[in-house]
Structure formats: C-alpha cells, structure tokens
TrEMBL record:
Bilayer topology term: Multi-pass membrane protein
Family: Belongs to the peptidase M50B family.
InterPro entries xref list: Peptidase_M50
Protein name: Peptidase M50
GO molecular function, one term: metal ion binding
Superkingdom to which the source organism belongs: Bacteria
C-alpha cells in the first residue's frame, strides 16, 4: 500500500515556494494518537496542533534547503508524519545536509518556545472555563508534539532526522561504510529501546513503530552491504 498516493480528499495549498499536500490519513492517524474516550474536542485539538507543528517542521527542512539553493519540490503530510522534497542544484556538503536535518526538530523547539512565551501572561489558569480548558489542552499538545517528538526525532535512528545527522557524520569517517554503520547503530538502538519499552509498558500498539524502524534498517543494512562489499 502506498501511503503517499494522491486521493480525492487531499488538501492542497501553496506556501513559501512549496506546494503542500495533506493526505486524509494524516488527520485520521493524528486524531487516533490524540484519542481520549468521549473527548472529540481533544482529538481535534491534537490533530490541529500536530498539523501546525509537523507542517512547520517540514518547512524548517524546506526553507533551509531553499536558502542553500535547492529547488523546492513539495511538502507532504501523510499517515506516517511529514516529508519534504527538494532538489539540490549542486552537490550539498555533508555539513549542509546536517544543518537541513537539524532545522526540522529545532523549528519545533522554537515553535514551542514561542507558545510558551505567549502563554506566560495567561498562566496559571485560575478558572476552568471552556476556553481555558481548550488553551490548556492545546499547550499540552504543543509540548508533546514539539518537545517530546522533537527529542525522539533527534535519536540516531534512520530514517529519523537524528539518524540522517549520524549518517552524514559517519560519512566524514568512511563514506563507503557510512550507510552500513548508520543502519547497524539504528538496529541496535531500536532493539534496546524496544526492550526497554516492553519492560516499562508491556506490549502495545506503539511496538508497530519499533517493528517498522527495525524492518527499514535491516533492509537498508542489506542494501548497503550488497552495494559496497
Ligand atoms: Zn524532519
């Protein structure tokens, strides 16, 4: 199944030089992650917060790449998160690739910093009015999506942004072995984190994510072996 395929329900718009497309599964998956029994409002707040945060994350990558002379191709939000496509018009240096990768998560940290600043005059919320409850939920969602996911995204695991940073750092050491090594580190870390997760929370639906990352890296490892050895 192609999760990135076009559908008649896509939301399309154009922003800062990039055509943006939002696949309907983006909203469905985000509302599911924000699932609270009987609380449709929180699911909507979660989907909206995730939309703004992941969109700006991709623009973090995209605008830095554009500033480095890449041609903007498009930004896609879909069931697995976000993707930013751009076309380098020249060979990008490793440090430039690293800066582009870091620009995503650091945009999230900056965005949460901005939310935190805006909330300062409002905190602590004294009354539990409906508006205050929405504002509190939104603040918590923005913390979770921008700070918690932002830190996870920096883990040295492919294809997360931290994994791409690790790969480009390893290219300084050995360009031919970098992908193989990056896949091995990713496999080891996913296994360790997966075991820690099961020990702490027991088996749960989040293990699908670990399985996906493990499978993707075993594939990358096998591919890099067959290419370079
Ligand atoms: Zn990213």
């Amino acid at each position: 199944m192609d999760f990135t395929a076009r559908t008649p329900y896509d939301l399309n718009f154009y922003l800062w030089g990039y055509p943006v497309r939002v696949n309907p599964f983006f909203w469905i998956i985000m509302a599911c992650i924000g699932f609270r029994p009987g609380d449709l409002q929180f699911m909507a707040i979660f989907a909206l917060g995730a939309f703004v945060s992941i969109l700006l994350h991709e623009f973090g990558h995209g605008l830095v790449a554009k500033a480095m002379g890449c041609r903007p191709v498009g930004i896609l939000l879909y069931g697995m998160g976000g993707l930013c496509y751009y076309e380098p018009r020249r060979h990008l240096a490793r440090w430039e690739e690293i800066v582009i990768s870091l620009a995503g998560p650091f945009t999230n940290f900056a965005l949460f910093g901005l939310v935190w600043l805006i909330y300062q005059p409002l905190i602590p919320f004294k009354e539990a009015t409906p508006l205050n409850l929405i504002l509190i939920d939104f603040y918590n969602v923005m913390f979770f999506v921008n700070v918690f996911w932002g830190i996870i995204n920096l883990f040295p695991i492919l294809p997360l942004d931290g994994g791409r940073v690790m790969f480009n750092l390893l290219r300084y050491v050995n360009p031919l072995k970098a992908l193989e090594w990056a896949a091995l580190v990713s496999i080891g870390l996913v296994l360790i984190l997966g075991i820690l997760y099961i020990q702490s929370f027991g088996p749960g639906p989040n293990l699908v994510l670990f399985a996906f990352l493990l499978f993707a890296n075993v594939q990358t490892y096998q591919m890099s072996r067959s290419q370079y050895s």
